[in-house]
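Suppose a colleague, Dr. K., hands you the sequence of a protein chain of 429 amino acids and asks what its three-dimensional shape might be. Before reaching for any lab equipment, you can write down a predicted structure in token form. Begin with the sequence itself:
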Amino acid sequence: MSSTSVGRLGKGRLGALATAATILVAACGGGATPSAGPVTLNALFMKQAAYSEENVTEMAKAFETTNPNVKVNLEFVAYDALHDKIVTDQAGGAGTYDAVLLDAIWPAEFAKAKLVRDITDKIPAEYKNDVFASALAGGEYQGKFYAVPWINDTKFLFYNKKMLADAGFSAPPTTWDELLVQAKAIKDKGLVEFPIVWSWNQAEAAICDWTQLAAVMGGPDFVDASGKAQFTGGGALAALEWMKKTLGDGLTNPASTGFLEEDVRNTFSAGSAAFALNWTYMYNLANDPEQSKVAGQVGVAASPGMGSVATSGVNGGMGIAVTANSKHPDEALAFALWMASKPMQDKFAQLSLPMWKSSFQDENITNTAPELFRAANTQFTNLVMRPVVPYYTPLSGALQVALQEALTGKKAPAQALADVAAKLPDLQK
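The predicted structure, expressed as tokens, is then:
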């Protein structure tokens, strides 16, 4: 992946980046001053989605230029390897990483295990005032912050404009029921065999889609405050039954049960789907003629709603945490704040949208992808978290199995979810 937006800023904004870096470094330690001597930071990021490796590398190099005594070694791993890589590295008080990328579902677990630092009093006021609440929530647990918010993301509805027009539709669906009507019409006209594609592999990706659907079908609260399972009925069960029905009706591509997000992007970009639910990064890549057969035909809209809920999205935010074992916590925090700063995010607003609300009021930024910014401005105000609990990882693992069993017909949806509920006390240990 590469960014074509890095040349968009003029000298004034590049100067603002340098100014921001000076302020951030001076303030990063809550009174502490970063070391004057050479410092090497080891930072762990993920390979796919959101900012590209090239984007992250350019951000880090800019930080090094402004802070010549600090060198940043970057390492990228696949998302599915990120969690265990951090846990293994930090186990037993050891650890080579100073800054690590955290998914919004991990702060509770990592805070309880004391793998990352409490940085509550080190988050600058402008972050708390100007960053979307959804982005802040991704680094928070029990009123304290354990990660600098960096990515504010959710899954949007992508659609093929030409297929919709050829099927007689002038606008994308605003409800999931309407999406099924449009999908059936597209299928009946022979425009594409399977109009909808999803990332329903036995992975966190499926949990994200399920959460997003459940949020508009009766509520995404999978576990209540006392730790009792809520996912055996209500919106959670309704969403899973809806997912399975789309497979049975031939509207969802059956390969979706083995797909991750990149498979969704590639299928849609090949012209083999009319609709897809995916993260922000897909918009520019699916519209890139070098990577997509449908470039110029790709539309994006806020995720459909249902009933009284107009739209909702899963909170796919990520933050940068300072590890508990970092020998250079001040520099690591300065680096995290630099990466998350508004000037830096505005500069790379292509594969990942800024988390800063004021950026959405800047036409120099929004005019690069007005359709995407409009969808995000609507959806970012109603993002839902997956369970914020220390045992989320084993819970998610069990639910991933349950979703796969239900979607592939091995168990009825209600039974698959009930089986996980029966195991919940053990998962919470």
